[in-house]
Amino acid sequence: MPYYGFSCPACEHEEIVLRSISNRNDVLLCPEDGFVMERDFSVHHKIKSAVCASTFFSSTMGVHPDQIADEVRRHPDWKFDKEGRLEICGLADQRQKIRELGMINRDDNK
Known about the structure:
Distance between the termini: 18 Å
Number of domains: 2
Oligomer: single chain
Radius of gyration: 18 Å
Largest sheet: 3 strands, antiparallel
């Protein structure tokens, strides 16, 4: 599901919400003043921080806990939890890490 930006025309409050494509045009009320918020198409630079705020750990792309130290040396910017699961920060980050690991992402071939 993609992220969509909305802004309130009255108070300029901004929201970034995760919605299915079929619900992208559903009404969103401003939590500040109750006005109907409008889709904001200029928020792409803000969405990255919202996506990274919702990280998850992939058990599929993880390593054995004994190998965490070696992987951190190989990829110093990567983060692992104590069980060896790799932290993923959005779909673009997942695809990049798949490429760096030399794995095949079958979704890219469609």
